[in-house]
Specification:
Blueprint (H helix, E strand, L loop, with lengths): L17 H15 L6 H10 L3 H18 L13 H21 L8 H6 L7 E4 L3 H16 L6 E7 L8 H21 L3 E5 L8 H6 L3
Parallel strand pairs: 1-2, 2-3
Length: 214
C-alpha cells in the first residue's frame, strides 16, 4: 500500500498479520469450543491455544480465505521465500492430504493446495536479483514448489543494471557481471522471464508503477 501511495478503482490491498490472525482465531475458539466448558476446561483450552502451532493454523485459515477470493476476482499474493512461507505450504499440503483421506471417492472437493497446483487458475512468479545467491535461493524454492506439485509460471529478475541506461564505467562493468546469472535463469530455470531495471528512485505511486509495464 505504501508503494501504491493512493487508491485505484477495483483494487483492494490487504495484509495477513500473524498476530492479529492468531488473536482472532483464539477468540473464535474460546467463543465456540470453550463456550460450554467449566473454568478448568477453559484454562486447559487457553493453554492449548498458546501453542506455536496456533499461529500456523490461524495464518493458514487467513491464507485459505484469500485463496477462495480468487473464485470471484483476481488475487495477487506477495510472500517471501522464508521458513514461515514454507511452513504455510506444509500446512496447506497437510490439510489437502487430510481432506483427501477423509473424502476418498465420496465426492468432489477443492483444497487451497489444489488451487495452487492448477496452472490455469494460479500463476506463480518467482522474483529474484541477477546475483548468484538470490538466483540459487529462488531455484531451490522452485524445486520445493515443484515437489509439492506447484509449477512456477515465470521469473522476474529485479533491479537489473543490464537493461538500465547508465554511463558509469563501474555500473557498466556490474551490468556485464549480471549476464551469466540471467543466462542461468533463462537456460536452466524459467521458460518465461521479465527484467526490471534498477531505478534511481522507488516507483511510488500509480503513474510510476504504470511506467514499469510500458
Amino acid at each position: 500500500s505504501t508503494t501504491l501511495n493512493g487508491s485505484l478503482k477495483n483494487l483492494q490491498v490487504s495484509r495477513i498479520n500473524p498476530h492479529d490472525e492468531t488473536e482472532r482465531y483464539r477468540q473464535h475458539v474460546l467463543e465456540t469450543k470453550g463456550r460450554d466448558l467449566d473454568e478448568a476446561g477453559k484454562r486447559l483450552l487457553e493453554e492449548d491455544l498458546r501453542s506455536p502451532c496456533t499461529e500456523e493454523i490461524a495464518v493458514f485459515q487467513a491464507f485459505s480465505r484469500v485463496i477462495r477470493e480468487a473464485g470471484k476476482r483476481f488475487v495477487v499474493m506477495d510472500t517471501a521465500p522464508t521458513g514461515h512461507t514454507l511452513l504455510l505450504l506444509d500446512a496447506t499440503g497437510a490439510y489437502h492430504r487430510e481432506i483427501a483421506r477423509k473424502m476418498g471417492d465420496k465426492g468432489h472437493f477443492t483444497t487451497p493446495m489444489m488451487q495452487l497446483q492448477d496452472q490455469e487458475r494460479t500463476k506463480v512468479l518467482l522474483v529474484t536479483l541477477p546475483e548468484t545467491t538470490p538466483v540459487l535461493e529462488a531455484a531451490n524454492l522452485q524445486s520445493d514448489l515443484e515437489r509439492a506439485g506447484i509449477h512456477p509460471w515465470g521469473w522476474i529478475i529485479n533491479n537489473s543494471l543490464s537493461i538500465a541506461q547508465t554511463q558509469s564505467p563501474l555500473l557498466c562493468q556490474r551490468a556485464l557481471q549480471e549476464r551469466p546469472q540471467i543466462e542461468v535463469v533463462k537456460n536452466q530455470h524459467a521458460s518465461r522471464i521479465a527484467l526490471v531495471p534498477v531505478m534511481a528512485a522507488e516507483p511510488t505511486g500509480i503513474e510510476k508503477l504504470r511506467e514499469l509495464v510500458v
